[in-house]
């Protein structure tokens, strides 16, 4: 206890220095005059509490540590049914989830469906980035650039050439993949952390270009009035545009505005399922195995005759393609895009989803995307603290569970102790 | 002299001013990278916190009735250095130390999380609006023909040059002459061996974070006085620019960071002179990409050998 006293006092002092000026004093701009006021007593109360808590935790660190070690570790995997049974149930479970996803929107409010669509976009982005970060182990901080490429591809093609969503979707993916390839080719030779910064720089360059190339992209004002997707040429609007036909006219039913929202949602479900299908297939192909092998040990891979550049490039390109699809869909859903939607923070949110879900684990990422988009909507007061929490969660996850909440499990055999 | 050359001269002066502050921030990146090989992504936020502390200290002192400008500036500098170094130390202690020795990407992700966290922490505590302060140090000297183009150097720019020069010299002396500086150099060469020789490497690593943060705080004081406005998001761009400067000079090399900062500042200013100023960021990042592609070791860096 005596020995812990000095470090505890030191930690309390550091905490006080961290909080006293930044939280305890408030800068305020009144007209052109800046003023400094002390914060209200409640804030100072919080600061004092924080200092005392840090002091006590540091003081009793060693007894707390032994207590924690005595607690049994929780094993989540033991709670699930056996491996055999799970394998048998798997197809049924998947079918059940898909049916549930398709039936669910008809029973709930329009806002909920809209939120679900947004969540699905993040699921797609998370799954795409997972290829790059989770499988191949390349930290891409400019992922949002490919998302932007996809979104602007659709917006520009539909504005200048009148192409429809379904034509633009593959084009957007293709163009984003091309961008990924062009960018990836030179930079993938770099070491991991340099790669992260270069991709970050690239993301910023794309955003600045979109912002300043005013006569094509509309600059900060963005592009509005983007067409919504159609169902085999049937539009989801009250009145058809010239030469078109609307969904409700064709089927002879009453016009309901929520049909459009549900249709968009179903398109998103389709895209996510497609993404999942493709990724699951590719993961089992030689290239997918090579990604993971490369992540684990690059030098060993090279000595086995794998070409790291080609393998990394394929992961990068594929991740970019999915971001392109997601971007195209995003533009169609919003009907309006501007460079504001493609800032670094967006990249960081997608990265946080991948990190929280457990790098490499697809189920984990889907769960994380749902949590990250729905939690702030449930509690509006949360909204203010959303980014603070994202940052905090990223740090805490790396400290406590770098493998994520639901880490990926690969098929393996274990020798039981005799 | 012709108008163009005077105009270029003016841009050079502005570029050197910004460049020297980039160099100050870049030293934090380069020292940390040199010792533990990680990119401290949250370093830009330490600069931002330094700027906020400067504003708070200056306005607070003026409100308290301290009227002598040099004393106000000196006290603000000291406050900013103390608070920012505490942040630098705390970030290392809480977020990076437990992760040392793990895979390379994990500390980088932590650092990004830390950066987002600090940015929003300041945003929540102080509001997201721009804060503007009237210039405290005004005036300067002008030369050149007023009919053609007048080149001006403000006192503030001179203060920036002097303070940067003094801090750099102090750092160089500290690294090359003092015992702790020698320990720092030893850590950069071989961390494990230094530890075996009885030097508390944890303490040295914490020290590099503190020095880096203190220099970032100096940059925060200088730039917040120079621009006169701050907001919680300035750390991101400044951090990226400083990182570019560190890479340009060769990451891990302290003279390299100084040189890189100056080159970057001048390049940016010259770009802004002849192209729309929005493109100066594009040039900075383009420069970063080009260096990493063609000379990843930077101008003064040593090549890194990959060991199995």
Automatic annotation (TrEMBL), chain A:
Which top-level group of life is the source organism from?
Bacteria
Query: Where do the TM regions start and end?
Result: 43-60, 92-109, 138-157, 163-185, 261-279, 313-336, 348-375, 387-403
Supply the Pfam families for this chain: BPD_transp_2, DUF3382
Give its localization.
Answer: Cell inner membrane
Annotated GO CC locations: plasma membrane
Q: Which GO terms describe its molecular function?
A: branched-chain amino acid transmembrane transporter activity
- InterPro entries (alphabetical): ABC_transp_permease, LivHM_N, LivM-like
What is the name attached to this protein's record?
A: L-leucine ABC transporter membrane protein /L-isoleucine ABC transporter membrane protein /L-valine ABC transporter membrane protein
Q: State the species of origin.
A: Marinobacterium halophilum
UniProtKB/TrEMBL annotation, chain B:
The annotated topology with respect to the bilayer is: Multi-pass membrane protein
InterPro entries, per the entry: ABC_transp_permease, BCAA_transport_permease
* Record protein name field: L-leucine ABC transporter membrane protein /L-isoleucine ABC transporter membrane protein /L-valine ABC transporter membrane protein
Q: Which GO terms describe its cellular component?
A: plasma membrane
Q: What is its main location?
A: membrane
State the similarity comment: Belongs to the binding-protein-dependent transport system permease family. LivHM subfamily.
Q: Where are the transmembrane segments?
A: 12-34, 46-65, 71-90, 102-122, 155-175, 204-227
Would you kindly state one Gene Ontology biological process term found in this protein's UniProt entry? L-alanine transport
Q: Output the Gene Ontology terms for molecular function.
A: L-isoleucine transmembrane transporter activity; L-leucine transmembrane transporter activity; L-phenylalanine transmembrane transporter activity; L-valine transmembrane transporter activity
Subcellular location(s) of the protein: Cell inner membrane
Pfam families, sorted:
BPD_transp_2 (PF02653)
Q: Which UniProt keywords apply?
A: Amino-acid transport, Cell inner membrane, Cell membrane, Membrane, Transmembrane, Transmembrane helix, Transport
């Amino acid at each position: 206890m005596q020995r812990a006293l000095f470090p505890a006092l030191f930690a309390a002092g550091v905490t006080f220095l961290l909080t006293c000026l930044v939280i305890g004093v408030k800068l305020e701009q009144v007209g052109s005059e800046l003023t400094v006021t002390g914060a209200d007593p409640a804030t100072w109360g919080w600061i004092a509490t924080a200092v005392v808590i840090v002091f006590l935790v540091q003081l009793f660190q060693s007894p707390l540590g032994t207590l924690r070690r005595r607690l049994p570790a929780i094993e989540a995997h033991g709670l699930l049914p056996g491996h055999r049974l799970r394998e048998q149930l798997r197809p049924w479970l998947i079918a059940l989830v898909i049916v549930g996803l398709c039936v669910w929107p008809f029973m709930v409010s329009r806002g909920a469906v809209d939120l679900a669509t947004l969540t699905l976009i993040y699921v797609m982005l998370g799954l795409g980035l997972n290829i790059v970060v989770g499988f191949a182990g390349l930290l891409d901080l400019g992922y949002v650039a490919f998302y932007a490429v996809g979104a602007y591809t659709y917006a520009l093609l539909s504005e200048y050439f009148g192409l429809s969503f379904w034509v633009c979707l593959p084009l957007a993916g293709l163009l984003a993949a091309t961008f990924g390839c062009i960018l990836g080719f030179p930079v993938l030779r770099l070491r991991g952390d340099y790669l992260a910064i270069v991709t970050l720089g690239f993301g910023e360059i794309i955003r600045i270009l979109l912002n300043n190339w005013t006569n094509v992209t509309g600059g900060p004002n963005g592009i509005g009035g983007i067409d919504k997707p159609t169902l085999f040429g049937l539009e989801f609007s009250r009145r058809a545009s010239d030469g078109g036909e609307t969904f409700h006219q064709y089927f002879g039913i009453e016009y309901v505005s929520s049909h459009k929202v549900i249709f968009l949602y179903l398109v998103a479900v389709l895209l996510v399922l497609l993404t999942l299908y493709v990724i699951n297939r590719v993961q089992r192909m030689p290239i997918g195995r090579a990604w993971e092998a490369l992540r684990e040990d690059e030098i060993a891979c090279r000595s086995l005759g794998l070409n790291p550049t080609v393998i990394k490039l394929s992961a990068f390109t594929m991740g970019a393609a999915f971001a392109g699809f997601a971007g195209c869909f995003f533009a169609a859903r919003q009907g309006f895009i501007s460079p504001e939607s493609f800032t670094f923070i967006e990249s960081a949110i997608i990265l946080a989803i991948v990190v929280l879900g457990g790098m490499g684990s697809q189920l984990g990422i889907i769960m994380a995307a749902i949590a990250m988009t729905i939690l702030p909507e449930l509690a509006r007061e949360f909204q203010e603290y959303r980014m603070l929490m994202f940052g905090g969660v990223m740090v805490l996850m790396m400290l406590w569970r770098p493998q994520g909440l639901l880490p990926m499990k690969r098929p393996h055999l274990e020798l039981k102790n005799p | 002299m012709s108008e163009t050359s005077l105009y270029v001269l003016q841009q050079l002066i502005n570029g050197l001013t910004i460049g020297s502050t980039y160099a100050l921030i870049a030293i934090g990146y380069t020292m940390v990278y040199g010792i533990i090989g990680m990119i401290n992504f949250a370093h830009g936020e330490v600069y931002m916190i330094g700027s906020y502390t400067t504003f708070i200290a200056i306005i607070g002192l003026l409100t308290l009735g301290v009227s002598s400008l040099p004393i106000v500036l000196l006290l603000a500098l000291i406050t900013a250095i103390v608070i920012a170094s505490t942040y630098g130390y705390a970030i290392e202690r809480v977020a990076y130390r437990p992760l040392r020795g793990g895979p390379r990407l994990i500390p980088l992700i932590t650092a990004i999380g830390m950066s987002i966290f600090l940015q929003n922490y300041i945003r929540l505590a102080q509001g997201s609006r721009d804060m503007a302060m009237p210039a405290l140090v005004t005036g300067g000297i002008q030369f050149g023909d007023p009919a053609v183009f007048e080149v001006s150097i403000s006192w503030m720019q001179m203060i920036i040059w002097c303070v940067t020069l003094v801090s750099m010299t102090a750092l160089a002396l500290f690294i090359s002459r003092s015992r702790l500086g020698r320990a720092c150099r030893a850590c950069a060469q071989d961390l494990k061996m230094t530890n075996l020789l009885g030097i508390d490497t944890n303490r040295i690593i914490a020290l590099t974070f503190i020095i880096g943060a203190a220099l970032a705080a100096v940059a925060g004081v200088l730039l917040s006085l120079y621009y006169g406005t701050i907001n919680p998001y300035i750390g991101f761009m400044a951090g990226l620019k400083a990182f570019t400067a560190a890479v340009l000079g060769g990451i891990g090399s302290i003279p390299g960071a100084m040189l890189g900062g100056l080159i970057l500042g001048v390049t940016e200013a010259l770009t802004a002179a002849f192209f729309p100023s929005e493109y100066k960021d594009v040039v900075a990042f383009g420069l970063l990409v080009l260096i990493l592609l063609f000379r990843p070791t930077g101008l003064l860096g040593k090549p890194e050998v990959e060991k199995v």
